[in-house]
Every structure is written in C-alpha cells, then in structure tokens.
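hi! just following up on the protien thing from before. the input was this:
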Amino acid sequence: METAGSAEAAPRPGLRERKKQRTRDALLRAALELFTTVGYERTTVDDIAEAVGVSQRTFFRYFPGKEEAAFAVQDMVEAHFVESLRARPPHEAPLEALRRAVLEGWDTISDAVLSVVPVALYLRMFQVIESTPALLASHLRRSVETEEQIARLLAAREGLDADTDPRPRLLVAVFGGAMRVTGRQWSTGPDLSLEAIRALTAAYLDQVGPALTGNWRTTGARPCGT
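and the predicted 3d structure came back as:
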C-alpha cells in the first residue's frame, strides 16, 4: 500500500489540456464581464466569443449556452460548500454544520473561484442572477437539485434514511429559504461586499431557531382581525 510520502504526484495536464482550460476560463470570464456590464439579456453568444477572439462554434464546445456560462462559477461555489459540509466534524448538530460550512465557504471562496474569475466579479454576477427574472427562475430550479444532494448528505451523516425520515429535507428547505432571503436582501442593499454578505448570512442563520419557535408578537400588539 502506498503511503502519503510515496504516492506519486498527479501528472501535470498536457499542453493541449492546459490550452483548452485557458480558453474555457477566458470565455467564462468574458461572459461574466459582459453579463455584469451590458446585461444578461442583451449579451449574445457571439458577443462572448468575439470578446475572446474565437468563433461561436468554439464557445459551444465549452458551454451548451449562455445560461450555463452564467451559472458556471455559482456551481463551483456550491460544490465548494458541499465539500465543506462533508468535512464538518460529526459531533456538530445538522443546522450548526450547515451554518459553519456556509460561513467557511465565504471565508475560503477565493479557493473556489479565484483561479477562474476575481471574487468581486463573482459577487457582481450573483447580483445579476438575483435581479434577472430568467436567471433567478433557473437558479431556483437548480437549487432543488443541490438541496436534495445536501439533504441526502445530512441523512448519511446522521445515519438516517432520507426517503423515510423527513427531517433532512425539512431542515434543508428552511436553510435554503434563509439563504434565498439573504441573497435577495444583500443584492438590493447598499453594501455589496463579501464582508456584507457573510455578515448577513450569519445574522439570518442565527435567526432560524428563534424565528421558527419564538413568539413574534410584541407587548400590546393585537392579533390581525381583532
């Protein structure tokens, strides 16, 4: 059996593979720059290809369409979060593991995206997704698949059967709702920094328990309709 010290390093990608990766990264960055400056609806595949100096056919070798380019970095960030959740210590309660994983994800987001695009460009694209109806609808549709993956990961982590125990999916539904509220509030607020969305994420997740179990009525308030 090989030890860590004797294991061979992974072979470096060949020149052809590195060139293909550079082309894909250039197309992705150009797409996000155009989406965030010109607008998603007004940007065409031809515009993206022209910005990189390649043909439309070359673009389609790397992305089925411009929607896939719009979500490529978001997919990387979500995969980064899932791996952070998978690595959380087993003694953490499920909600705490989710909270710590998402905050760790914001703290280490550079590890997930910086090799492709600047973090600031990703954050601007996140705002475009939140403010563009077609992209927001796609984002919600895509979230269903991610939430199912997270629910099954939590179930396995806790030794549960996700198909018979409703708790993993219920928790992930609440968590996903909190994250959607966070994204919406951040994208329409005055501070669009990484620090702002991280602080808002922490604040909203800290309110999940009190919001679900607490008494919201202030002293002297009368129930609606009385």
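Residues 1-7 have pLDDT under 50 and may be disordered.
The two ends are 74 Å apart (CA to CA).
cheers
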